[in-house]
From TrEMBL:
Superkingdom assignment: Bacteria
Designated name of the protein: Class III cytochrome C domain-containing protein
Residues reported to bind heme c 4: 133
CDD domains named among the record's database cross-references: Cytochrom_C3
Keywords linked to the UniProt accession: Electron transport, Heme, Iron, Metal-binding, Signal, Transport
GO MF term set: electron transfer activity; heme binding; metal ion binding
Keyword Calcium: no
InterPro entries: Cyt_c_III, Cyt_c_III_dom, Multihaem_cyt_sf
Cofactor(s) needed: heme c
Amino acid sequence: MGKRTIILAAVCVALMFAAGPIYAATAVDDVIKMENKAYKEHEKGIVTFSHKKHNEEYKVGCGECHHDDKGKPLNDLKMGDDVKNCIECHKTPGKMPGSVKKDLKANKASKKEIKAKELEYHAEALHENCISCHKDYNKKNKTKAAPQACTKCHPKKKK
Ligand code: HEC
Ligand code: HEC
Ligand code: HEC
Ligand code: HEC
């Protein structure tokens, strides 16, 4: 091993450290198993979400799904940006229990207030995002290609 190899190795290591803070990117798989770690247990089968395909083949822009802390669409998002997971803001795992809705109604909460409360629940936010687009798309294109039914997204759970 020559002196040059050692210098080269040292340069490589230095570069790796230098690159660290620049790449504060959030990694994302092309296909995501939607099994959020915030859940103790998933009641339903795990949804397979084709993240890359949605963007590239179905031509869905980042801002259709990702937004900032005010709910404003992040239309200029790029791969390599720092991206927050939905659960960081839609914090409570699962759907909103019926009892919560009943209490809100008993306290004369407005539709808007109920909706805002609902969005605190992760599964409600996800369903609203995924299913509302699928519904519109199917209706507009007279197709069933975008899944709307529970079992089309959540496969039957293996016992
Ligand atoms: C159809 C909806 C949709 C579109 C379009 C979309 N994303 Fe996502 N993306 C998601 C969802 C949902 C998650 C969270 C997945 C999870 O819970 O693991 C996610 C996760 C990510 C993550 C990982 C963050 C994390 O939680 O670890 C990155 C990075 C990302 N997206 C970037 C992008 C970029 C850049 C674009 C546009 C080029 C884009 N996404 C388009 C829905 C979408
Ligand atoms: C940084 C915090 C934050 C993150 C991360 C986040 N949201 Fe939101 N989300 C919000 C806020 C704030 C609103 C607006 C609530 C309102 O208008 O009352 C919102 C609204 C929504 C709505 C309702 C939109 C409407 O038009 O009614 C849906 C659906 C939603 N988010 C889904 C998601 C999904 C899916 C993800 C992950 C891909 C995500 N959110 C990530 C903060 C966030
Ligand atoms: C803004 C529109 C939009 C949003 C948001 C969206 N989708 Fe889709 N999705 C589509 C379209 C369009 C298709 C494909 C229709 C076709 O095949 O022609 C599709 C197809 C699918 C399919 C079947 C084909 C495949 O690629 O696996 C699954 C599963 C799916 N979506 C899951 C999701 C999930 C989960 C979310 C939420 C995290 C989501 N989608 C959000 C538009 C959307
Ligand atoms: C377009 C796809 C899609 C459809 C259709 C759909 N879901 Fe979901 N659902 C999701 C995604 C994505 C999550 C988030 C899971 C995660 O990230 O961990 C979720 C989460 C859930 C959760 C919380 C997680 C768990 O397993 O306990 C429940 C419960 C649930 N869905 C029930 C339903 C029911 C009931 C229906 C039919 C009325 C339905 N879903 C339809 C995509 C879908």
